[in-house]
Every structure is written in C-alpha cells, then in structure tokens.
C-alpha cells in the first residue's frame, strides 16, 4: 500500500502542477493554492479515475520490482524469503477527500491531502519459512485512509515555482487487510499470520511515514538539505519488568524485550531471555538513532520465548521522544498494552521499567568527559561523568590522554536501611520477623540486616557500604524476608539502578515493595565516587 501511495502521489504531483501552478508565481502561491486545490479536488479525483487503468498497466510491474527490496528490509526472522509472485493495482482508484495548504518558513509550501482507498488489487506473496515450507499468500480486502504531506521546496522564480517535492504519510487513520493462503489455512503454521501482517504494516508505515520522506526533484539542483538525517542519540537502559501475564500453561513465561524507534532489522534491539520469570531483570543498555525527536516514539514489545515456535506477544508500550528533556535521564514505568492502536486496555499485562537519555547532536560539549574528549563513553556515562566532575578532581589530564581508555563509574555506595512500614503478616500470630538482604547484582556482594521480631513496622537504622566497580551497569536488589526457625519467607523487593544516586550524590526515599500485598521500605543512599580507567 505504501508503494501504491508513492505512484499515486507522483501522479497527483503532476496533476497538481498542471492545475495549481500553471499561472502562479512565488508571491501568490500560498493564497491561490488554497482556492485552486479546494475547487479542483473533484476534478483531480475524476481524472485519476480515468487514468487509473493505464496506471495499473504501466506501474504494477515497476511497483513490484521497487517494493520487494523494501519488504526484505522488514522481513520477519521467521521467514526465509518474502517476495511478490503477482501484483496489480486493480480497477478502483484512490480518492482524495480533503486538502489544506500550510505556509512554511518562507522557503516552501506544505500541502496536506487526505486519501481514501478501498481497492481491489491482486497481490500474492510468495513466502518461504525457515523450515522450507513455501506458501502463496493473498492480500485481500484492502482499506486505507491517511493524510499525506507534500512539501514544495525551495520556492524559486521559474516555472513551476519550486525546485523539488517531498511527500510523506503524515497520519495513518486506517489500514485494514486480510491474508489468505491460496488452497490452505494460514493458521496451520502458528504465528505466521502475525509475522506477515506485522512485516507489511511495518513496511507500509515506516517506509513512508513522517519523518521519512521521498524527494522528487523538479528542477536541477542539490536538495540534500531536504533529506532525512540523524539529529541525535537515544540511550535506553532496559531495567526490568514486573507482573507480566503468564503465557505458559506449565511454568512461567520466558520473557524477552524488543525495542526500536524504526522497525528496521539493523535498528531493532533485542534483550536476553529470562527463563521462567514474570518479573524479569534485564539491566541492558541500547542506543538508537533519532531522526525527529518531535514526532518519533520509542517502542517496547515484550514476548514470551516459545523456542522453535513463534514467540507470543505479552504486551507492548511506547513513549514519545518529545517527552524527554535533552541531557536529562528520565526514569519511567510503562504499562504494557495488547495493541498500541487501542489504548483502552483494562487487562493487567504488566509494566516495563526504562531509563532514557536523549542527546541531540551538537550538544556534546554539555556532556564531555572532564579528562579527555576522545574517550569511548556512552552518552549516559558522559552525563554521569559531567555531573560527578564537581565531586572529585584528577590532575593528570595530559597523561591520561596518552592512551585511549574507557572511564568506569567506580565508587562506594553507602546504603542505610532505615525502616519498613505496613509489611504483610506472614506468621500465624499476625506478625512477622523481618530482615533485609541487600545484593549488588553484578558484583554479587551481599549484606543483610538483623532480624526484628514480631513487627510489621520494623526499624533497623543499619548502614552498609558496597565497593562498586562499574556503577553504570550494576544495580541493587533490596529484598525483605520473614525469618523462620527452619528457613525464610519472601515478602517483597525493591530494585534500584545506581543512576540516580550517582547523579544526585545522595537521596532518601520511601519505596513501595514489589511482589507484596502491602509494605514500604525507607532507604537512604549515598555515593562516594572514584573514577578509574581501563584499557579499551
């Protein structure tokens, strides 16, 4: 559908030039454009319907040839190949139902067109699975409604009044279609329908949806400034998930996460799988290229790994990059939904915990390493280093710069376990005998408090020091247990990355216990930094 749109918009551009810009000059383009396009919309639809049979005959093979490499970019990993065996546009032409003209910054004009297409194309996909099964899959019952953006830029003083046209899908309102195996049942291979449908949707939406744009030169010239370019880096720490829906009949789900801004294979990140756990801890770092922070989203999908079978979606979430403050770490819990198109989802599918940092290009000086700008550091390391620079000093800048090294966030983490409140009663007498176990996950060092007998609101006021070798990649598990004569009963936990304490130096907070019916834990954390180097 996205490929058809390109052809239709190309035709439309030609018609628009003939109708709207035949007698225009740059100075009157915006004013007359509104009038002409509103009054000529019926004319455009009429002529598009007349020429559509010729478009079908002339463009179908071209679209098929052009579309296959795009489909390959979005081909799901469960398929060995995904190609067209037949492609025709059908007899029903798209119709344009609305138009508006938006003045640009003085160097261009933006036109937005709403298009509706309930087509009858003949599209058959030839797919092969990884196990060698070949199936012809028909794409039927296509329905599409969307708003397309055409940018005429730059404005020039020669016919037709602009140098190039950019077109893009600004808003997808509807995209419906069905898949059918010719002479068979697509449901016979579990997960196949979802994989093909997802690939088609990703290819249509991502290959042409804003900020992605196609550029059509009208006059000779350099239009590289109109191309889509990276504007920054998004760094993501996938911390954990909790209360995930169990998809397994025996045991628990084996969750992993897939993250992306654009669903291209080389830009999609996948976490490790945590077996048999509905509250997985990943603590993994990923970086993503950002091309338009004002419109792009980060998408997170959590799956249950089913081994040789297709993974089953547990839930998905997204976050607008426009909600991030450049250079500031944001800690978020995102609710997982069944479908991002349907935000009203009352079922609890779990939550996923992220730390995010957006660093626009050109702001590197704000996050520089105080020792040497040539060090290999992630954006998050640079922010942390810049914030901890005031806490310590190192006078050997020139000596350190002689060898390329990587800075490790090293120091001493001091944790005071102050008290707990409203803990659940575990013992038969309506009380508990709670104690706290603290674990530095990567270093695998542990400490524990004393046991407070017969209390649901214990007070410890005990302080523990941990030597942290790699603060950026380590995390703290604080678990509360009930002490019994013959063992211990789990009561709940708090999971903390070290990002906040490294940035702030010290903080005190009341944390709600995860995995408990009730209960809070009062902690005081303090960071005493000491940077060291390792050879890279």
UniProtKB/TrEMBL annotation:
<keyword id="KW-0446">Lipid-binding</keyword>
<dbReference type="InterPro" id="IPR000008">
    <property type="entry name" value="C2_dom"/>
</dbReference>
<comment type="similarity">
    <text>Belongs to the synaptotagmin family.</text>
</comment>
<keyword id="KW-0812">Transmembrane</keyword>
<keyword id="KW-0472">Membrane</keyword>
<comment type="function">
    <text>May be involved in membrane trafficking.</text>
</comment>
<dbReference type="GO" id="GO:0033011">
    <property type="term" value="C:perinuclear theca"/>
</dbReference>
<dbReference type="InterPro" id="IPR039010">
    <property type="entry name" value="Synaptotagmin_SMP"/>
</dbReference>
<dbReference type="GO" id="GO:0046872">
    <property type="term" value="F:metal ion binding"/>
</dbReference>
<keyword id="KW-0445">Lipid transport</keyword>
<keyword id="KW-0106">Calcium</keyword>
<protein>
    <submittedName>
        <fullName>Synaptotagmin-5</fullName>
    </submittedName>
</protein>
<dbReference type="InterPro" id="IPR035892">
    <property type="entry name" value="C2_domain_sf"/>
</dbReference>
<keyword id="KW-0677">Repeat</keyword>
<dbReference type="InterPro" id="IPR045050">
    <property type="entry name" value="Synaptotagmin_plant"/>
</dbReference>
<dbReference type="GO" id="GO:0008289">
    <property type="term" value="F:lipid binding"/>
</dbReference>
<feature type="domain" description="C2">
    <location>
        <begin position="213"/>
        <end position="334"/>
    </location>
</feature>
<dbReference type="GO" id="GO:0005783">
    <property type="term" value="C:endoplasmic reticulum"/>
</dbReference>
<keyword id="KW-0479">Metal-binding</keyword>
<dbReference type="Pfam" id="PF17047">
    <property type="entry name" value="SMP_LBD"/>
</dbReference>
<dbReference type="Pfam" id="PF00168">
    <property type="entry name" value="C2"/>
</dbReference>
<dbReference type="GO" id="GO:0006869">
    <property type="term" value="P:lipid transport"/>
</dbReference>
<feature type="domain" description="C2">
    <location>
        <begin position="393"/>
        <end position="511"/>
    </location>
</feature>
<keyword id="KW-1133">Transmembrane helix</keyword>
<dbReference type="InterPro" id="IPR031468">
    <property type="entry name" value="SMP_LBD"/>
</dbReference>
<feature type="domain" description="SMP-LTD">
    <location>
        <begin position="37"/>
        <end position="219"/>
    </location>
</feature>
<dbReference type="GO" id="GO:0016020">
    <property type="term" value="C:membrane"/>
</dbReference>
<keyword id="KW-0813">Transport</keyword>
